[in-house]
Amino acid sequence: MIASIQGNVIRFGENYLVVETGGLGYQVFVPIHIFDGLRLGEQISLFTQLIVREDSLTLFGFRDLEELGLFQELIRVNGVGPRLALEALSTHSPDVIKRAVLNKQEEIFSQVAGIGKKTAQKIILSLEDRISFEDHLLYAPETAGINGEVQEALISLGYSVLEAQAAMQTIPEDAPLDLETRLTIALRFFS
Predict the structure, then answer these.
(1) Residue 173 — φ and ψ, nearest 5°?
(2) CA distances from 135 to 15, 44, 98, 132, 143 (A)
(3) What is the pLDDT of residues 39-52, one digit of tens each?
(4) Rounded mean pLDDT of 101-124?
(5) Are 18 and 9 in contact (CB under 8 A)?
């Protein structure tokens, strides 16, 4: 099992990257948002899921464990394969998908190419008992949005995804909802 990969991006494809590490280039299929601001030669760190089929080994990569976990739950749904799960995560963030499941919003899933009404219903029924809902995610979507910005800022400052997530845990729930304050609190974790 390949649980994660870290290396330099040596090629872009339509929905994949080639990441070179240890002298080998690995083709990793990723959600579309991972391409944002990414350049050739840049180092990247991804959590991965290896899908083994009779005729192929396919590697899927994600920036954080939440996204990987949601991908793993989506592919467990009957009728949703890895490519469709990846398309869902390219179309919507994990927060949006979780809220759609909680609120039984089939139309959110129907916005994903390849997902019709029946598949949307299957996803909601299958996931409503299996995914965890965090109180701040459900009741304060603006907090989830600003926390995403803080995490991206930490990564752009050179911290790894895991370091950024650890720093994010130190931000109190009642902290002001502005980027500068939350980023300052998160940066204290590293001093």
Answers:
(1) -60, -35
(2) 33, 31, 12, 10, 11
(3) 999 999 999 999 99
(4) 90
(5) yes
Domain positions in the chain are 4-62, 65-133, 137-188
CATH entry 3.30.1490.20 includes domain 65-133: no
Residue count of the chain, please give it. 191
| pLDDT tens digits along 147-168 | 778 888 888 899 886 787 778 8
Higher pLDDT: 47 or 94? It is 47
Residue 56 in 3-state DSSP?
strand
| Mean pLDDT of the region 82-101 | 91
Distances (CA, A) of 32 to 29, 75, 153, 163, 176: 9, 18, 19, 23, 30
Q: What tokens does 131 get? A: 């995914």
Considering the entire predicted model, what is its pTM? 0.69
CATH of domain 4-62: 2.40.50.140
- Number of alpha carbons in the 13 Å side-chain half-sphere of residue 122: 14
The residue among 33, 40, 35 whose CA lies nearest residue 67 is: 33
138 has a pLDDT exceeding 60? no
Mention every residue, 6+ apart, whose C-beta is less than 8 A from residue 86.
15, 29, 30, 31, 60, 71
